[in-house]
Amino acid sequence: MKLLQQAQALLADEITIEAIRTLAELQNKAAGHEHDYIADLWEGVYAAADDEVLSQASDEGLL
Asked: Residues with Cβ < 8 Å from 4, sequence gap 6 or more?
């Protein structure tokens, strides 16, 4: 669950576009339950990120 720990650490600070990119990469690398747990973290991204960051992430196809 190393990838999950890395993903959780991303959400401890301000949500930036770089953090969203990294979260997407970690989720793509993960498999099984770890993939599912990382997928659950996206709710936190939507709740914590500002609209500009979410808009940029959407434009990049990350959301």
From this structure: 30, 34, 37, 38
Residue 21 corresponds to which tokens in the numbers above? 């990119």
Q: Identify the residue whose tokens are 């990838």.
A: 3
Residue 47 predicted with pLDDT over 90: yes
Residues 19-41: pLDDT tens digits? 999 999 999 999 999 999 999 99
**Residue (of 7, 24, 1, 18) closest to 53 by Cα position:** 18
pLDDT for 61 beyond 90: yes
What does the block give as tokens for 10? Answer: 């991303």
What's the Cα-to-Cα distance from 7 to each of 11, 16, 20, 48, 53, rounded to whole Å?
A: 7, 13, 10, 14, 17
